Amino acid sequence: MILKLNIQEFIDTDKPIDISIPMHEGPDAVLAWYGDPIKLEPVMTDRFIGDVSKGGAVNFRNLFMNPHVNGTHTECVGHISKEFVSINKCLKTFHFEGVLVSVNPQDENNDDGKTDRIITKDILEKSVSLQDLSDELKVLIVRTLPNTDGKLSFNYSNTNPIFFTKAAIEYVNDLGIEHLMVDLPSIDREEDGGLLIGHHTFWNYPKDTQFHKTITELIYVPETAIDGRYLVNIQITALENDASPSKVTLYNIQS
């Protein structure tokens, strides 16, 4: 199906670029936050067998997983708020214009004697500026370099992954971005004493909370996708939780 954005631009909905990491069982599943891979277990009782291969009429499985641990997920301010806030209530529309940028994080020594890899305001300014964005562009998709398919199965736990500085997130806000997408387990440092400065800054919580804004983490943008503008579709489950597993697709905007 062809959708027209305006008189001069259109997208082909039959050609999506999936930037989601599939959730699945096994040792090659992506992981974060010291969690376990998902588990799919058939319901088994004295009167019911939830596995066709074992004689059941249907496959009927329980799913055990954590959105933040097991793959691509989209979260709302409920991730950091004292109040219960649901992504299902916050995300009300699902199609947006967005821009994909590829960035080279820089190294910085920290107080723990380790080397952090960070995304700074300066790095983002070199990739995208206010002059580059129209008022309709609401999604920023950040692909970190180098970009390999190892991101599809990496265990990020205890690896001090790349994160954004506070100034970088302030710049994202200045750009008018409402939906930030990253190929990282978090926009904040893995061990930061629970401060989550980037999350608080992005949602401006609790002073002027931006309930409509979302962060999508653990995406993977294939090399076939070039930097530039896209139509972005965010799909979530109708789950009343701070975060939901999500499937995110990009569509080339063609003239």
Describe the structure.
This protein has four helices and 15 strands. It has 255 residues and is mainly beta. The strands form four sheets. Strands 6-13-12-10-7-14-15 form a seven-stranded mixed beta barrel. A three-stranded mixed sheet has the order 8-9-11. α2 (121-127) packs parallel to α3 and α3 runs parallel beside α4. It is globular. The two termini are 16 Å apart. The model has no long low-confidence stretch (mean pLDDT 95).
Short description:
The protein is mainly beta and 255 residues long. It has helices at 87-90, 121-127, 166-174, 197-203, and strands spanning 2-4, 10-12, 17-18, 39-42, 61-64, 73-75, 95-103, 106-109, 115-119, 137-144, 163-164, 179-182, 214-217, 228-236, 243-252.
Give the CATH architecture: 3-Layer(bba) Sandwich
Domain module count: 1
How far apart the termini lie comes to 16 Å
Q: What is the N-to-C order of secondary-structure elements (H for helix, E for strand)? A: EEEEEEHEEEHEEHEHEEE
Shape: globular
**Low-pLDDT residue intervals, each spanning 5 or more residues:** none
Any idea of the CATH class? Alpha Beta
How confident is the prediction overall: mean pLDDT?
A: 95
Strands, helices and their partners?
Blueprint: E1 2-4, E2 10-12, E3 17-18, E4 39-42, E5 61-64, E6 73-75, H1 87-90, E7 95-103, E8 106-109, E9 115-119, H2 121-127, E10 137-144, E11 163-164, H3 166-174, E12 179-182, H4 197-203, E13 214-217, E14 228-236, E15 243-252
Parallel strand pairs: 7-10, 9-11, 10-12, 12-13
Antiparallel strand pairs: 1-2, 3-15, 4-5, 6-13, 6-15, 7-14, 8-9, 14-15
